[in-house]
Structures are given as structure tokens and as C-alpha cells.
Description:
This protein has 314 residues and is an alpha/beta fold. The chain has one domain: Alpha-Beta Barrel (TIM Barrel). Helices cover 45% and strands 11% of the residues. The protein contains eleven helices and eight strands. α4 links the parallel β2 and β3 (117-122). α2 packs antiparallel against α11, α3 packs parallel to α4 (104-111) and α5 (132-145) packs parallel to α7. Residues 1-11 have low confidence and may be disordered.
Amino acid sequence: MEQATSPTRQVEPFEPFEPRLTRIGAVDAVALEARAADLAKRSIKRGSKLEALDLIVRMIDLTTLEGADTPGKVAALCAKAVRPDPVDTSVPSVAAVCVYPTLAGEARRRLDGAPVHVASVATAFPSGQSPIALKAAEARAAVELGADEVDMVIDRGAFLSGRHAEVFDQIVKVREACAPAHLKVILETGELGTYDAVRRASLLAMAAGADFIKTSTGKISPAATLPVTLCMLEAIRDVHVETGRVVGMKPAGGIRHSKQAIQYLCVLHETLGRDWLTPQRFRFGASSLLNDVLMQIRSHKTGVYETPDRFTVD
């Protein structure tokens, strides 16, 4: 199996953010939520369901971000990431394993030669409240320890205080510190308050050089939602139309069932098209989602619906 690759690395921000502020525009919340609700009703043909489930597995960043994480837990998670269903070797590997920086080395050792990336959170996850020098140092350390993807969090306090240029500069510095790793920028949309703020933060992150934009840390509620994801996907679409630049998307937190994940794929397809239906451009940040998808795959192939205790608990 070929190792997944991330979107083409952008070396420089495509445009300073501040001149774009007047062109951001307002988000029609009623229309956005109505469209998200309409797209959530879309269904896929039974013959395509197994293909969709397979794609969801390949898009998952299998995640453990707990204070009690140990090398043993990461080792088990890596084994599951490579072979999610030991009984069915046709089930593909996931996209990445996401851990804290101190465990990135363990993940790298366990995944050496496997088609699975090592992702690490950084920059004072989940708050984002630390000096930029420490954020950059942590991102750099994560890469040195073995991460080839870094998930950083923005400083929501700075953003909500209107210090957008400061947030922009921090993303640029973290991106430089973690190169050549790919950078996912977490907006923590549940704390931003409005769709206008989500769109503004999405454009800011992309302008600063994010390879992916990500909804949430998974540590607060609400995390990922379909309307918020649609808002971010539309920002990605607008940047792509205007500049040709490709930016990935990662909803994270609260996506636990395959039915939900398929709804996200429908929203993705209708907004950005088939070119984004790939792990190189779309990820799910999840832990419990994988087991539900595995149950659905087993049911689809055998006609028997398996119970959760047939699969390991992450």
C-alpha cells in the first residue's frame, strides 16, 4: 500500500491577511444551516456504501490525547491504525495516529515503514495560551521526535480580542518551526461564537500557510458540526477559486457514527467535488468512529451486525 501524502506544502503565505479583511463578507447563518441540513439528508446507494466506509477508514486520524496516555496505549493504537480489523485484511489502514509530542517518538517507532502518518498536537494544546517562542519550540520538538504532521491550536483569546495579525504571525512562525511537516490549524470553532468568526479564522489560517484547517480540539462542546464544517469548506472553495491553492479540511470531535461521517462526505462532495474525496485533502479527527465503521463494514460483507465488543476499545 502506498503511503498517503498530504497536500502540496506551501512555502509562503499566498497573501497578507489584513488586506483581505474587507473582502471576507458576512455569512448568512440561516441559509448556511438550511443547506447543511439539506445535504445531511442525502443518501448514497447501497452499492456505494462499502466504498464510502472504506474511504472513511482511510481518512481517519486515530487519536488519543489523554493525560493518562502511555507508550503501551500508543503501541496498541498504532497496531490498530495499520490493521484496523485483524479478521479482515482488506480493510485499509487509517491516515494517521495523533498523539502528544512526548509520544510521537513511540508512534514513529511503531509505524516505521507503515502507510500511516504520525501527527502530533502542539502549541499549548488545547488552550493555545503560551508565548509564541514556546509554541514554536514545541512544534519543532514534535517533528524532531517523529511527527510528520503537526496540529496546532490558535490563540482564541487573541483572535476574539481582534488581534488577528498576531494570530496570523503565530501561525507563520509555527509553520516555519515545524517544516517540513504539514501543518493543521485548529480553530476551536465552538469558542469562536459566530459563523462570521469561523470564516474569518479559516481565511486567516489559510493565508498564514495552513495545509489543513481543523474545527476543534475535541476537548470542548460543541466540536465539529455540519454547518461549521460547511462554512469552512466554503472558505476553502473560495480560496481555491481565487488562488488555485489547495487546503485540506479536518472536522474533529463528536463524530462517532458512520452515518454522521457519510453526511460529512456528502457535504464535502457537494461543496468541493470529487477532488477532495481523498485522505490527502480531508481527515476525520476521531477515536470511537473507527469501531462503528468497522461494524458497518462487517455487517455489509456478512449480513450480520456485529456488537461493539467484537472490536478493541481505544
